[in-house]
Design goal:
- The structure holds two protein chains of two kinds.
- Chain A has nine helices and no strands.
- By secondary structure, chain A is an all-alpha fold.
- Chain A has a single domain, classed as Ferritin (Up-down Bundle), CATH 1.20.1260.
- Chain A is globular, with a radius of gyration of 18 Å.
- Chain B is mainly alpha-helical.
- A two-stranded antiparallel ribbon of chain B has the order 1-2.
- Chain B is globular, with a radius of gyration of 21 Å.
- Classes of the chains: A mainly alpha, B mainly alpha.
- Chains A and B meet through helix 1, helix 2, helix 3, helix 5 and helix 6 of A and helix 3, helix 4, helix 12 and helix 13 of B.
Chain lengths: 262, 314
Amino acid sequence: MSTLDTIPKTKKEALVEILLRLADDRIVHGHRLSEWAGHGPELEEDLALANVALDMIGHASSLYSYAAELEGKEDEDHYAYFRDDIEFKNIAMLELPRGDFAFTIARQFLFSAFSYFLYEKLIETTDDEQFKGMLSKHLKEIKYHLRHSREWVLRLGDGTEESHKRMQEAFNEIWMYTGELFDLDDADQVAIEHKVYVDVSTFHDQWKNLVHETIEEGTLTVPDSEQYMFSGARKGRHTEHLGRLLAEMQFLRRSYPDATWK
Amino acid sequence: MDTQQQLDQFQERIDNGEKIEPKDWMPERYRKQLIRIMSQHAHSEIVGMLPEGNWITRAPSLKRKMVLLAKVQDEAGHGLYLYSATETLGIERRELVEGYIYGNAKYSSIFNYPTLTYADICVIGWLVDGAAIVNQTMLAKSSYGPYARANLRICKEESFHKKQGYEMLAKMMEGTEAQQKMAQDAVNRWWWPTLMMFGPNDSDSPNSAELIKWGVKSKTNDELRQHFVDRMVMEAEAINVELPDPDLTYNEETGHWEFGEIPWDEFWSVVKGDGPMNRERIKARQKAYESGEWVREAAMEYARKKKLRKEKAS
């Protein structure tokens, strides 16, 4: 049990918890993708990765805003800039260093595929109109992220010998972090009861099928899912990478707490 | 060889304000000059992503982070369509890119200065994009059709960049003492390099007359610079930021602001490769280019295999 682990009681508390989990995933993923700006393998990819990064940060920002509204906090920046790493609820996969282009693509693909099924189900399930509206808008962009990364898995997997090797290594390396995508904890259960989250196990097979089909179509091998799986990041038990990511992201804002930057 | 008759007819078209399109006849020298100017412009957009990209992960609010990321993304887009426009002159992107990362092709020297604080991002938006707009507004009327159209599109986005930079700088000047200090320091550092963006004085600019004759440009470096200074003096005053030039004085007769001597030694030194960030910028671009080689090769190989499979199937 984490020292920061509190189980939400009301619907509002449950929704805030879910909003923050979703938003933290996206701000951290967006941060890593944004590191590519100006360093991509070709100009078209500089554009595409910046585009996905921008969507991710945009999604995080609107999810945080809603949480701020519910909790009576000043604004979305409160969550992004004034919480420490053990308070962040993102899964560990997203905080790992950006790696090479194959690693970035592997991560984007696995996470976009997960987000795609999650958002579809959540839009069907939730009775919170504001939340639903937000998710519907974001889903359109997630479809593009999924298509973009899926196409690259195929290109790299079935490209040259080197790209095949790198793509395979990327999946091998990231695989132990995929378990967390489908972890369900007490907070999720409360949120599911209040219809602000869904039981992620209900679309596990769909995710698995899409991921396996894509990896195999890319002439690659699906890594062993029976291996050790990392878990605990949703409750603040992160890798060592998040601390540095946040130190960079938050330093300016925290150095001048009285200044306005909007 | 270009004949005199061809040259005369070409000049007549230019003088009539006609646009030259890729398939039209053009003097070899016109083609060469355009390739040089347009690819320099493209390289500048791409190298320009580096100093600004330096602050994306550290931007002080989510809104500012998104604005900056969108701006850097726009620059990649500008680079892309400028390279495409240059390719209409019969040269490939690869050759152009390798020309600056391994060769002597130039990009705007302004990007050889470091972005030290977040205020630099605001000042780049205000001054550097402001100067770029003055230049590009003129180039949007350029005689070469694809270049004119690319600039028209770029200008629209640059205006937004300039506006957001200026607004944020204004906010910093109204903000805490630390913010004001940061903002003023950034203006002090960027002012002179920005004035250098318009190129050497007309007396030292051998290409200008020819480019004007061919309608690629319509104003000289000094004319553009003066136009820029006149505007910036007003805009600086409006947000209480000082321009670091004790010689700035208004000339009632000409209606222009006169300014001090630009540090030309520094300009030529940076152009020749000796600026604070020249080597790092090139190294960063080389690294991106070289470590992306396997990705570009994979994409080509995949496309080839796919085509082959399609042919077999049919």
